[in-house]
Amino acid sequence: MKPIVHPRGLFSGRPVRGVSPFLCHVCLWTGVGIFVFSSVNAALRDLALAAPEVFTVNAGKVDSANEGRRIHLTGVLGSASPARDPQFGAVGAAACLRRTEETRTDRIRPRRPRRPDDMLDVWTPRPGGPVFSNAFGVTLGAFRVDTADLAKTGPWTPLELDGELLRRVAAAMPGHSVRVESGWIVFTSTAPLAEGAVFPPAFRVKVEQIPFGVITIVGTQEGEHVIPVAVSLGAHPASAVLRRARDSARVLGLLLCLFGAGLSFAGLHLLRQARDLTRLYGRHYFDR
Q1: Domain of residue 203, residue span
Q2: Is residue 172 domain-resident?
Q3: Tens digit of pLDDT for each residue in 175-193?
Q4: Which of 99, 118, 127, 243 is 20 to 30 A (C-alpha) from 58?
């Protein structure tokens, strides 16, 4: 007996093996789409509600009358000691550091090589995501700032890769050559190639920071702490800080909503495919 072949669509021309995988995909993609939509809408609502309730306060004094309120303060972000990366140490005067690592997994020839020996590296993010390092005892005037909350809001800026920093980084990774490429620090092993290897092992690192200095925070006062909602480097009015945060959230929200919509439509398409397969199986069963 010939295998059942789907008459059209995504699996046209291939033997049909079952319906349950399609239903699993429907649940997965539709669920992800709903999650994305709900998460973005919640974030936008939170930022919108913060705008009309902001009180500008003096960063040099904590006023208990503002407990639980949204406050706007500008001051110098500082700490007794900067954040230290577990691998490279204190690579900058920063309250927070974020290190992203990728491993070279392949080298391929580009479609339009500029030179006969031109090759393109394929990089894969390391499992676990970025590594965060935070300073202790971070303050903004008389207020204490939780670096975990600060890391969620940013703003993250690229670490300046000067000669002194590169020498320190190279000393922390012996047996590797170091170069800078498009804002990444690339480490390539100098050891002899292993048997069967066609290129030396390599990985690259990007380090970003939330630096010390003048900073503006809009957030909620809880005792001596301020929980950031929106943060901007430099001195800015509350309206400008919130406007930038809302604009960034809207752009990200639009992209995520489009992505979620695509996933939802994919789920609906797979649902239609599952319905057609059910009819096809039923027709085949009764025609036997």
Answers
A1: 80-211
A2: yes
A3: 889 989 888 999 998 888 7
A4: 243
